[in-house]
Input
Amino acid sequence: MENCNSEMLNRAMRKAGIRNGFEDISAEFSAFRDFKLKWTRSYKWISFEVSDYLRNAPEHVMQSLAETVFARIRGEDRTAYSEEVCDYLNSKEFLEENQGMYLKRFRGISETARGESVDLLNCYRRLAERGLVEYDPDLVIRWSSVGDRSRKVGRSSVLVRTIVMNPALDSEDVPEEVLDYALYSQICHVNLGFGPTREDDAERYETMLTRFTERISAETELRRFGLVI
Output
């Protein structure tokens, strides 16, 4: 199967752009840490910066993605990603090609799940034993080595199945159930997956969180530490 390169990327964007009234269309891969696509435009020209995590995408995936992007540029914000785009972004192939690159670009994270006081794998193990999650060998769990100014318990990437937890939780003062809930909240984010739209994500996420029976007390305790999920 032919893979996507810069020429193929430009070809896909040009075809979709011309159909949408643009005359000058250009695109290039950029080494963003997170998966994203940016554009600059005027009335007749448009220039794209596309995450290089898509550098090996099949051409039909890039063509479909281009059509969705231009639909959204037209103001059709609820345009869904196609099944082929979702299948590719959720694929083992995409994960294997990009997870390591993502970790190298994410500065200030631990080498393992073990922090100074807390081993996040113990939290993960407890969640699995309770039946709240299934063990996933592809899931990467790390500590951030710097504080999160947003005071979030952590951040997660759905596409590369990676969780980075706030170091404020790496303390013997934090109860186990609070640690477990904080990690569980991020695993739930990852397990939402990349879907055609995000319209039902909030409802699905809320349903997942309600499975954690100590949720209310854990969230109360997190607020005491100045953190939110």
